[in-house]
Amino acid sequence: MRLLSCGLLALLLISTSQLCAAGGDWNGKRAAVSLTYDDSLNVHLDNAIPVLDAHKFTATFYLTVGYPPFGDRLAEWRAVAANGHELGNHSLYHPCDASQPGREWVNPERDLSKWSVNRVVDNLKVANIALEAVDGKKARTYAYPCGDMTAGGESFVEAIKPLFSAARGVKNSIMQPAQVQLFDIDSYMINGSSIEQLTALVDQAIAQGGLVVFLFHGVGGEHPLNVDNANHTALVEYLDQKRDQLWVAPMVDIAQYLKDEGLTDK
Ligand SMILES: [Zn+2]
Fold first, then answer.
1. Domain boundaries, the chain
2. Distance (Å, whole) CA 170 – CA 156
């Protein structure tokens, strides 16, 4: 039906590149949204998840396994996973490259510029085991702490591919299926955004027939990068209003869909 429509449009000399090739088929919906939450924060359990569950949306929680809100609240995270949310891997202790500008805060024990690729892989394997012990799942995605993809100056992207379905990066864009790079999926880091700025991203995804990935840290506090709790709730309500046009899903489900449909080979 869609092919027929596009063919007719082509005959009518309407720009098919805009109307047909511009996405618009995300698991049967016009656009896709993935909500992701980093760093194992209490506010994810206390503020974000109740709102998501009330609207029957599922999301990805990128857990830093060594941070206390993970280990202290295992039973709750297990219930979150059982409810359809993804427990993503965000490493054991959030190592970052201290040789980059503005990284004075990085603990020298967790300085990726001094690590090897093998050390990264070993750490991520252990984090995966911890997450599997909680959710019982083998498939999950990764989020690069600080967006860093190198250890000791060497890329570890290829080395971690056997461990994950996909990985989220930190570049900003709304993606068409063929533009999605599975091990560097673009995202918008949210910090202090107004509800208008948040819903504008959803509107752009719908207009373009693309995928938009939100990257949250604090939701109503607990992290210097933060979104107001009321704005987060309003965003979820907006997604609900638009749900006939949107596929809202965890990253692992979106990656699996793109692979199953042969929509990206990157
Ligand atoms: Zn992080």
1. 23-260
2. 16
Cα 111 to ligand 1 centre (Å): 14
CA of 243 to the centre of ligand 1 (A): 29
By C-alpha distance, which of 178, 192, 256 is closest to 229?
A: 192
Cα(159) to ligand 1 centroid in Å equals 20
Average pLDDT, the chain: 92
Q: How many angstroms does the Cα of residue 63 sit away from the middle of ligand 1?
A: 8
| Residue 162 CA, ligand 1 centroid: distance in Å | 21
Q: Identify the pLDDT of residue 10.
A: 42
**Residue 99 is encoded by which pair of tokens?**
């040789």
Residues pairing with 155 in the sheet: 150
The H or E element spanning position 54 is helix 49-54
The string of pLDDT tens digits covering residues 223-240 is 999 999 999 999 999 999
The pLDDT score that the predictor gives to residue 2 is 45
* Residues, CB within 5 angstroms of ligand 1 (ion): 38-39, 145
Pick the CATH number of 23-260 from 3.30.950.30, 3.40.190.10, 3.20.20.370, 3.90.1170.50: 3.20.20.370
Give mean pLDDT, residues 54-69. Answer: 98
User: Rg of the chain's alpha carbons, rounded to an integer?
Assistant: 19
Q: The tokens of 222 are what? A: 């607990």
